[in-house]
Every structure is written in C-alpha cells, then in structure tokens.
Specification:
single chain; alpha+beta; three-stranded antiparallel sheet; about 20% strand
Length: about 80
C-alpha cells in the first residue's frame, strides 16, 4: 500500500476550533457550561468519534480480506 498523507487546517475563535480536512469542515467546541457556545462536539467527543471511525475502517478492511460479510458494526464508547 502506498504511503498516505493527511492534512488538517484549523482556526480558533474563543473556545471553538474549526478544522478543514479536504472539503470537509468540522466544528469542535466546548459546552456552554465550560465557556463555549456548544456549536459542535467537544474535543473528547471528537477524539472518541475518530476512534470509532478508525475501528470501523479497520474491521471492514480485515473482514474484506477474510471474505467475511460484515453487515454492520456499532460502538458505544464512554470515557
């Protein structure tokens, strides 16, 4: 497999961070109780979502290599 490169550009305003990855925009913000405006998931929720996304992709690639018909996969992650 060819080496992959990933890049994200971010800007911040107050507690909110806007990340641009390719043509996708993600807004990460703190809850109002923490001084943010609640415009998006907080950093920990974003990290846990990314973990679930990575696990899903890994499981699907392995299932495909094993010729296993993976119908679906769900995660409940608590930190």
């Amino acid at each position: 497999m060819e080496k992959m490169t990933f890049a994200v550009s971010t800007t911040s305003e107050g507690m909110a961070t806007t990340a641009i990855a390719r043509e996708y925009k993600v807004v990460i913000d703190a809850d109002t109780e923490m001084g943010g405006k609640g415009m998006g998931p907080n950093p920990m929720e974003t990290a846990l979502s990314a973990l679930a996304g990575c696990e899903n992709i890994t499981a699907r690639i392995i299932a495909q290599e094993m010729e296993f018909d993976l119908q679906g996969i769900d995660f409940e992650i608590t930190f």
